[in-house]
Design brief:
This protein is an all-alpha fold and 218 residues long. Helices cover 89% and strands 0% of the residues. 26% of the residues are buried.
Length: 218
């Protein structure tokens, strides 16, 4: 159905964020299992509980406002969740993965902050004070969750930088060993070829010299 009024926009946006929250409840446990940092795991698990409460809050809002949500899937959140899956699949467990997961989680939080901020504004325009209050509660929770992730990231980012530096050093050392081995191999082949060449030259020289001697005797 085409969106022609602010009410249409409100219902569409609310339906979208409802779908987003449902997707987040499935993503957070996976992210909590993937991290090796206890503080980050706790942050994910705590926000899972908050998210479940936020879904219930939307259910309450729908009942109070007497509106009906659309059956739809939040495509934006689907993409953000997919990014977190790719991180878990591509990066070994450790500080680097943890740093990536924080970035992915904060993308989610920023999307939700924008969504709930917009919904609260629409609710105010429509004179839906109860809805605005409920949405405002969720908006504050999302801001707090984002700030908590920022605090946890401070130490994790430092550890990720150190971890990445160690891997780079190991890679450089391995490349150095491979280059050294290749150099020794090339040197060995060069010496062998030189010996054969010298022998051949000596033989030729001796042949010429003997021939000249025989010629003079005759």
């Amino acid at each position: 159905m085409a969106r022609k009024t602010v009410t249409d926009l409100f219902i569409h946006e609310l339906s979208d964020v409802y779908s987003a929250e449902k997707q987040i409840t499935r993503a957070l446990p996976r992210m909590a299992r993937a991290t090796t940092n206890p503080l980050l795991a706790q942050a994910f698990n705590d926000h899972l509980e908050e998210t479940q409460g936020q879904i219930e809050r939307i259910d309450t809002l729908v009942e109070v406002a007497g509106i009906k949500l659309k059956r739809m899937k939040c495509i934006a959140m689907e993409g953000l969740v997919e990014e977190s899956k790719e991180l878990i699949e591509e990066i070994d467990k450790g500080a680097v993965l943890d740093a990536g997961l924080i970035g992915a989680a904060q993308k989610v939080e920023h999307y939700e902050i924008a969504s709930y901020g917009t919904l609260a504004t629409f609710a105010e325009i429509l004179g839906m004070q109860d809805a605005k209050d409920l949405l405002g509660q969720t908006l504050e929770e999302e801001k707090e969750a984002d700030e908590r992730l920022t605090q946890v990231a401070g130490q994790i980012n430092f550890e990720a930088e150190a971890e990445g530096g160690e891997e780079e050093e190991e890679g450089e050392e391995q490349e150095g060993r491979m280059a050294s081995a290749g150099s020794r191999s090339s040197s060995g082949r060069g010496s062998s070829s030189g010996g054969s060449s010298s022998g051949g030259s000596s033989s030729v020289s001796r042949g010429k010299s003997n021939g000249s001697s025989r010629s003079k005797k005759r």
